[in-house]
What does this fold into?
Amino acid sequence: MSETHAQTVGFVRGQMLPPAPPPVGQSGPIRWIRENLVSNWFNAILTVVSLFVIWWLLSSILPWTLNGIWNAGSLAECREIRDARGLESAACWAVINERWLQMLFGFYPIDARLLATLFYSEQLAAAGGVEAIFGAGADSTARIEFVAQMRADLGNTIVFFFGYWRPLLALALLVVAVAPVLYGNLPRKMLWFSLVYLFVAFFLLWGGSVWLPILTAAGFAASFFLARAVSALSGALLGLLAGILFFLLFFFDPLGLVGLDLGLFPVLPHLRAVLDAAVPLGLSFIPSDDFGGFMLAIIIGTSGIVLSLPLGIALALGRQSDMFIINKSSIIFIEVIRGVPLIVWLFTASLLLNYFLPPGTTFDLLLRVIIMVTLFASAYLAEVIRGGLAALPKGQYEAADSLGLDYWKAMRLIILPQALKISIPGIVNTFIGLFKDTTLVVFIGLRDPLGLTNAIRATGEWNGIYWELYIFVGLLFFIFCFFMSRYSLYLERKLQTDRR
It folds into this structure.
């Protein structure tokens, strides 16, 4: 048979040919274009129309953007420079160059003492301090002229790093505080700094006596450890009551809240007065009215995100609880909060909340806004987390019971880790929406980025400018939200242990 085959086949190759490259039209960019852009006549028409629209938009936007003017003192000066260059249109980026510090920090005062110490040491020594430079009764005009001189001599960059060192340091420490949460392989001891950071950031941003955040942290810690000690001796219920009672006596006047005045007073103000008299330490106090810009948005957004997540988990567990009072209370809270727009709750925090407090009680507006934003976000997070809990099969709960775990250990070790992993997209989506909703505080008088944009546009120098300021605000919001969405995707990939 082999002889027959050899006679019928004219030629048999003795070695394999090397692999040949695919045809030009079946690989590389040409193949991608054929498959994605011109796969049929309809897609080809859509591609041509889309390219025309993109070209038309870029031909209008790019010249306006790239021919922008960066050095000008007003919108009228920008237009004069534009006309002198013979341009039809040009962006006036000079408003960003002039007001970017105000857009970032609002009216938060710079540390003029540090700037004067660093760069005006001779004048400082001669004048005897910044107070002597400004004068004993000097108004804000002297400070404005001082800042203008600093900018003229050293630029906005020096003022940014040294004048605003307190909010910048608080932001840098925030990155360190959230690192153990973002990356689980870091030492767990760093979680203690995450708890302490709340009090450190308060002291850096608001200033005042250093003993206030220290004593506040000590009061929370003492309440916690007292509750644990009493729980170990007399049961969890008595431990909880003991911790709550100590907390009220330390921070509040519980009898005064119900109208009984027995001459009692909270422990915190008394201890603070004693320590302030013995060792007066602290930074210059800055009221919340001076907060603004993206610093205000970050404070409200970060506080709401950090505080709403544990509260949302508690509400989700409460809504699934078999205890009647806890279940119905959680349902009522979630439905009432979710059924009313955030702007209504912000007006409630601004106008009505003080009416429910004891007479003479002063509650900072920014603190009221943070509390209301936290409650609002926690209601939405509760539903997101409840969806994650409902997505778990019943066998996970039965497995926890078979191991002999009680309710809290089962939730902490088995149920919640899986439910939170499922709920990551919804949780991060709620966080992004919360951060963007911080712009609503402009309606209650806080100077958020949009409020400062309107304030800048109302000045005589920049009256009539629109796009440049809103593009700057939108770009910064996009950067923050894009970072959160990218981290959400990273966290999802990291936690996909079932697909490894």
